[in-house]
Prior knowledge:
This protein is α+β, with helices and mostly antiparallel strands.
Amino acid sequence: MLKVYNAMTAEETKAYQRADVKGTDLEKYASLDALGKIRNDVALMKEAGTVVRGGVQHDAEVTGINLTAKVPEAKLKDCVDLSKYETYDTKAKKVIPLPTSQPLRYYATATAQRWDGRWIVTDVDTQGGSKC
C-alpha cells in the first residue's frame, strides 16, 4: 500500500505542477473519492492561474492494517514537507508565499483499501495535523 500511496502522490505532484490531471496515472492509484479531491484542487488552481513549482516531499508509514476485513484496509500517516514547495502565479509571474501560519512539515493521513487484489487510496486528509 505504501508503494501505491507514493505513486499516487508522485502523480498528484505532476498534476499540480501543470494544473491539469490529464497525462497522469492518478486513476490507477486513487478511488473516485480521493481523485475527486485532487481534481477539485487542480480546478481551483487552474481557475486561479496557479501551478506548483518544486513539490511536496512525503514520508509515509502504515499506522494500522486490517487484512481480515471484508475489504482489507490500511491507515497511513504521512509527514508532508513543504520546504521545496512554491505556488506560482502564472499570470503575475511571481511566487505566492505560503501563509505564515502554514507549518512546513505536518502530518496528513490516508486510507487505502484492497480492491480486486490491488491496493487503492480511498481517502486523503491533507488538512494538516500536528507538526512532524
